Amino acid sequence: MHNASTYVMASTSTPAHNALPPAQPAAGRSSRIAPHSHIKGLGLNSEGYAVSDTSGFIGQTNAREACGVIVDLIKSRKFSGRALLLVGAPATGKTALALGISHELGTKVPFCPIVGSEVYSSEVKKTEVLAETFRRAIGLRIKETKEVFEGEVTELTPTESENPLSGYGKTIAHVIVGLKSVKGTKQLRSDPNIYESILKEKIVVGDVIYIERNTGAVKLAARQRVGRSDAYASSYDLESETYVPLPKGDVHKRKELVQDVTLGDLDAANARPQGGQDIMSVMGSLVKSGRTEVTEKLRREVNKVVKGYVDQGVAEVVPGVVFIDEVHMLDIECFTYLNALLESPMAPTVILATNRGNSLVRGTTDIVAPHGVPVDLLDRCLIVKTASYTREEIAKVVQLRATVEGLKLGAGVLERLAEEGERGSLRYALQLPTPASILASLAGRTQIEVEDIGEMNELFLDARRSADIITSSA
After folding, report:
1. What are phi and psi of 111, to 5 degrees?
2. Domains of the chain (ranges plus CATH)?
3. HSE on the CB side for 89, CA within 13 Å?
4. Across residues 370-387, what is the average pLDDT?
5. Gyration radius of the chain over CA positions
6. What is the helix, strand, coil percentage profile of the chain, to 5?
7. Which keywords label this protein (predicted)?
8. pTM of the complete model beyond 0.70
């Protein structure tokens, strides 16, 4: 779904008609422009007022400020048991507002968007899909302190011994690993399994690594190898390796590791126990259905374990955001289950969006409710309305979209596109420039002219003109 703010990038001083083509990646392939990758937040100042045309938004001042209040409520843990409902016409930025709220809450906060029609499946019942989405939106930050040996590898010496089962082969008895840090050096006599991990990661002398004392695993933050010590860096500009400084402190140290998982991950891990490694087990796992329904009993057990971790101070629960677009597609059973989920102790923030007015609640024959949502759920919602765009705002959106796509617009083209957007729809106006640029290139021109837009209008119809033609011919 492409909202109006979908095509809004961060404001730039470069006018669209002088825009240069976007830079191509090194591999020579043009990357697609993601619909909402430009949304960086709600664009509010420290006092909570919307700053004009920032953070990827054009307009929607009242809606952004209202969502800013919701963000403050969520951060202060005072929004539990309620939901936010975004209502407005298509292409007015409802999805972008939900993403903006997610960014304001932080990058580590889980964000799970679904569309109302996704809950209908032939494999899993619809309430299970909703429960699974809610669980994936509740994060668990686990903090663990481990003893590790960290440093630059100065020595790798495997010691071989005769294999007692065969007179021909030899086995690795142990391996001597020398590690150096700023404060000193240390030699470790390690298990053969650690040597296998070192060979697997292609670690050589000069690499900076760390080894967990309890498990013996060779683990590192970004990759399995932190990088080469900067003592090995040459004076050349082009380097294929990553160089890092020598680790500070002693070789043997205590390190705090933070791992982020969701309750959905824990449910899935416990619901699908791993079978054996034989061929029949592997084939059986391939034949099985891809989705497994998690029982309520299992969820309660997972919650009990998580609560124990939280009480011990080992873990912290991070409530995320569930965004249900086209919420009027849910039926009466789903709405009833949503009420129950909102009352659960560990409920994420729920954001709903719809473009319907008074409509029939799906799954019923006589219940007409505002936005197609039952009144008992609407009572739990704070409702924010998104406004339609003016001609000036449509022109800004089209101009920024042309800048992103590297299209050059001739005189009067922007005004014509803004007029088309006001008469038809914003999405229709945003779809015209790219095919018009193909016509301009066929005519030997580098910029789009007004006649190209006129020819596009002859080739393609917007929704209203198409409906009028069908009505008149009927």
Report:
1. -130, 115
2. 61-109+320-385 (3.40.50.300), 141-307 (2.40.50.360), 391-473 (1.10.8.60)
3. 8
4. 92
5. 29
6. 35, 25, 40
7. Activator, ATP-binding, Chromatin regulator, DNA damage, DNA repair, Helicase, Hydrolase, Nucleotide-binding, Nucleus, Transcription, Transcription regulation
8. no
